[in-house]
Amino acid sequence: MSKLVIADLFSGVGGLSQGFISQGFDVEFAIEYDKDIALSYQKNHPSTKMYSQDISTIDFEELKKNHSKIDVVVGGPPCQGFSQKGKRLSVNDDRNYMFKRFIDAVEVFKPQYFVLENVPNILTTANGFFKNEIIKGFEDLGYKVNADVLNASDYGVPQNRRRAFFVGSLGKEKLSFPKVKNKKVTVKEAIYDLPFINSGEGTQESIYIELATTKFQKKLRNGSKVLHNHVATNHSKVALERLSLIPKGKGKEVLPPEHRTKSIYSGTWSRLKEDDIAATITTRFDTPSSGLFTHPILNRCLTVREAARIQSFPDSFVFYGSKTNQMKQVGNAVPPLLAAEIAKIIKLDNETAYATTK
């Protein structure tokens, strides 16, 4: 039985790809518009053909001539137009063209399965209109579709990250979503083996000082000899003074009036709790005023490597480019461990189907 082959549309740095690869899938090609992110993807997946271009310019029929066998199409198209205020509620709305392109790709490649990932409110906006539109688009192509919101923390990812998934199978029963794991992984279990560097310290390549002590740490360090991307933000004097006033487990509520800011983001100037899961990692986790990204005990925000750990990327996965772009790569990714759980469901379904035809 040959390996299943995937195509990753709107791939980002490759969180979905990474999860599927961990379960034995091969990635035939990926499409990512941002050339810096595409470069990081390519360096981490050298055997995958990367198309770094606008997906609206791609002729899928031509692409199929070079990539004829695709078993699974995965991806997370952007969703700027999915607003209840929109006058034209349609998946064919120009603003939602990227969703249509995903459906177009599925129509051309006719994979056995697809996985579409997006923001949770896509299932509820306009009383579920978009959810129904998307499902109908796939059902018209012969797919059975299941849609739900999954929280990454339920699948071994140390982070409160909720995402919507549409999973389809061609001409079969609907696939079930993976079962929730009871044990949650904490911030401490995820990152406390990494060097305790201070603000402004660290280099793009360094060494491990401590041994891995938890199952999660050992899993993510497996095969990695060099520690990458563990560089702490060089915070301002005022920021360092403010952070020094916040004890373990506390936040801005303990700050004196002169240090209280009016940031609109939840969790600003607050410490991650070491014995709990992290808040959702976004693209600005180097700034205390952007959200709940302050280290549980050190006076600084998370490094790229710490955020990547919380996203469940293995340490062997290296993030390239500017720091801003590295944070974008990490913050926008699907957690690989969550993607792996979905990949397991597809793999098992395919193996079962193969066995029944023997």
Automatic annotation (TrEMBL):
Matching Gene3D superfamilies: DNA Methylase, subunit A, domain 2 (3.90.120.10), Vaccinia Virus protein VP39 (3.40.50.150)
Listed GO MF terms: DNA (cytosine-5-)-methyltransferase activity; DNA binding
Reaction catalyzed: a 2'-deoxycytidine in DNA + S-adenosyl-L-methionine = a 5-methyl-2'-deoxycytidine in DNA + S-adenosyl-L-homocysteine + H(+)
Top-rank lineage group of the source organism: Bacteria
Keyword terms of this UniProt record: Methyltransferase, Restriction system, S-adenosyl-L-methionine, Transferase
Signal peptide range: none
EC number from the UniProt entry: 2.1.1.37
SUPFAM superfamilies (UniProt xref): S-adenosyl-L-methionine-dependent methyltransferases
Residues forming the catalytic site: 79
GO biological process, one term: methylation
Pfam (any one): DNA_methylase
Family: Belongs to the class I-like SAM-binding methyltransferase superfamily. C5-methyltransferase family.
Protein name: Cytosine-specific methyltransferase
Organism: Marixanthomonas ophiurae
Taxonomic lineage of the native organism: Bacteria, Pseudomonadati, Bacteroidota, Flavobacteriia, Flavobacteriales
